[in-house]
Design brief:
The chain is an alpha+beta fold. The chain has one domain (4-139). The protein is 41% helix and 28% strand. The protein has a 5-stranded antiparallel beta sheet. Helix 1 packs across helix 4 (58-73). The model has no long low-confidence stretch (mean pLDDT 94). This is DUF7988 domain-containing protein.
Length: 140
């Protein structure tokens, strides 16, 4: 029996620690100039994180991580992933890697920011730096 989520998570934790640490470092760089613990400027998060990942070479490595993780699950990619949607997406929470494999869509999230919503519907959400990286792997 295959356990693609478990296999994917294990591969990242065993073989891609430097990538996870690099993502964490880039997120710290993004949040460092904020004058408070959070920002409401979504673009300051996503654009700055993309720029930091790109300048460190991590953005170009993420498709390689995705290919390796899919290989670890025992499935194959239908196409070679690239550092752009639909394979790699930089969101306000952090990078997301996605691949379609036989049992469904494999989604790997590296959450480095939390989205904080106020009960007031007129207020913009705020983005707060997480303490570290939360790795979330799912099969949808």
């Amino acid at each position: 029996m295959s356990y693609p989520v478990r296999d994917a998570r294990r591969r990242i934790q065993d073989e891609h620690v430097a990538i996870v640490e690099g993502i964490d470092h880039c997120a710290a760089q993004v949040a460092e100039p904020w004058d408070t613990a959070r920002t409401t400027d979504r673009n300051a998060v996503t654009d700055s994180l993309r720029a930091a990942l790109e300048s460190t070479g991590l953005l170009e490595q993420l498709p390689l991580v995705l290919a390796d993780v899919v290989d670890a699950t025992g499935y194959q990619l239908r196409a070679q992933p690239v550092a752009a949607p639909p394979y790699v997406v930089i969101t306000s929470r952090g990078p997301i890697l996605r691949a379609t494999i036989d049992p469904g869509r494999l989604v790997i999230r590296f959450d480095v920011f939390d989205v904080v919503r106020d009960g007031d519907p007129g207020r913009l959400p705020a983005y707060r730096r997480r303490n570290g990286v939360r790795l979330d792997v799912s099969l949808e």
